Amino acid sequence: MHETMLAQNIASAIRAEADKQEGKPVGAKITCGFLSAVNDELLSEAFGYICKGTSLEGMKLYIEHRPMRGVCSRCKKEFNVELSNSKCVSCGSDDFELLPEAPVILEEIEFEAAKNNENKSR
């Protein structure tokens, strides 16, 4: 259910940008946090279903998960948190706080090649 609503929002944003660009979108990239509740397969299927029979049909959706981030309590440096070795990469301390999870963001939209053979993207 969550993925269907997310797919609808992504499709709406792509349609709005396609209207502005006056182009046909062929691909889009979204990013989200590593621990987000986004199921890539379900989101891709929902997106394909929502786009069927529209100007977005056949678009490819690329999903990239951003790593978890933490800030060390000792040296105050931010770092990517690895589940297998959850220590500060600068000082080795295991005393850190997780930073807020990366939100779901529509990063870019790829359009069909324009007449002058350039791709438009946002």
Order of helices and strands: HEHEEEEE
In oligomeric terms, what are we looking at?
A: single chain
How many strand units? 6
Number of helices: 2
Helix-residue proportion: 25-40%
State the domain count.
Answer: 1
Shape: elongated
Q: Could you write a compact summary of the structure shown?
A:
With 122 residues, this protein is α+β, with helices and mostly antiparallel strands. Helix content is 26%, strand content 27%.
Provide the descriptors you would attach to this structure in a database record:
single chain; alpha+beta; 122 residues; 27% strand; hypothetical protein PF0899 fold; 3-stranded mixed β-sheet; 26% helix; 2 helices; 3-stranded antiparallel β-sheet
List the helices and strands and how they pair.
Blueprint: H1 2-21, E1 25-33, H2 40-51, E2 60-66, E3 69-72, E4 78-80, E5 96-98, E6 105-111
Parallel strand pairs: 1-2
Antiparallel strand pairs: 1-6, 3-4, 3-5
